Amino acid sequence: MNDKTNTKVGDNTRLAHMGNNPRDFHGFVNPPVVHASTVLFPDAHTMATRNQKYTYGTRGTPTSDALAAAMNELEGSAGTAIVPTGLAAVTVPMLAFLSAGEHVLIVDSVYHPTRYFADTMLARLGVEVTYYDPHLGADITSIMQSNTKVVLTEAPGSGTFEMQDIPAIVEAAHKGGAIVMMDNTWATPLFFRPLDHGVDISIQAATKYPGGHSDILLGTVSANEACWEQLLDTHGALGMCAAPDDVYQVLRGLRTMGVRLERHQKSALTLARWLEGQKGVARVLHPGLESHPGHEIWKRDFTGASGLFSIVLDGEGEKEAHAFLDALQYFGLGYSWGGYESLAVHVQLNDRTVAHAPKEGPVMRLQIGLEDVEDLQADLARALEAVNAL
């Protein structure tokens, strides 16, 4: 954001102006998309000392710097690493802060690919992994070990949307000498700023709401001052840089993220409240609802809710889940979320160890897009009719 707008302003104003100063690029509103591998040096001394802003394409360009600056402003972070995928946004900081013989605590409601990475790569590297109940809060002290170096949180949890008491976990983890990472993709920094609550590293799949159009894969990892240099060093060592066109698309997506999230939030809450009273729905898992067990934590710490939540159907399992999905017209059947279109998926929860699946029936995760809410409600009504007709 340039000097004229570097005061406390609203979210949408910040999103429209942050990340670059048009005067740095001859007045053009958007920064250049720099495609770079080799960067030339003016002389041998500069080359030997690397005494210039850019040295090689993997170490940053004006394009990646613009997105990193924007994310730093959103997150309140000392630095942000841009990586090719949301999953890389989880794996890079884990590799940065964990070594053989150390221990990591991971919330049991975590994004499944994170669990797979932990159970395969981290285990192979000699890191001990323990999954913990998302409701543990300050009691996480009881399962910390002398070699616990990282506590990974995610709130709300993937698929079943358990809330975590992040400030309590942070206090307990820091007392035990561990750093805290948080996958904050659901809320984005507009609705929750992890670093403001003591979290050391904030993780986002920018594929989701920052990108917003289901056509980009990208991740961001934002760190506080104490963790930034170690994160940056590992990011460089892994060569985990993102492509300039993808970086630019996410920067462009940020400009409209605020207004899109307003629509996602409003439509999702409208549908969640309606679904609570529908035949065939055992429970609605949305932290913004008063009926949700984590609602008070959400209301205390978060300033909004995004467009993703789940419902638990009455029934045995796969038969009801498939009937529900196959009856949908406007909800696409596909993974990911955060784009403009609505999506639905049957959540598989057989990997849980302590945060067990709801017993009433199958869990259906709904991504509420930007369509007219009346059409989405009619679509869900058709799907529930199909289930109830079994």
UniProtKB/TrEMBL annotation:
CDD domains registered for this protein in UniProt: CGS_like (cd00614)
Residues of the signal peptide: none
Cofactor(s) this protein cannot do without: pyridoxal 5'-phosphate
Domain of life of the native organism: Bacteria
Catalytic activity, EC: 4.4.1.13
GO molecular-function terms, A-Z: cysteine-S-conjugate beta-lyase activity
Primary enzyme class: lyase
InterPro entries: Cys/Met-Metab_PyrdxlP-dep_enz, Cys_b_lyase_bac, PyrdxlP-dep_Trfase, PyrdxlP-dep_Trfase_major, PyrdxlP-dep_Trfase_small
Pfam families: Cys_Met_Meta_PP
Stretches of the chain forming a coiled coil according to its record: none
Keywords: Lyase, Pyridoxal phosphate
Catalytic activity: L,L-cystathionine + H2O = L-homocysteine + pyruvate + NH4(+)
Family stated for the protein in its record: Belongs to the trans-sulfuration enzymes family.
Protein name per the record: Cystathionine beta-lyase
Species of provenance: Nitratireductor aquimarinus
Lineage: Bacteria, Pseudomonadati, Pseudomonadota, Alphaproteobacteria, Hyphomicrobiales
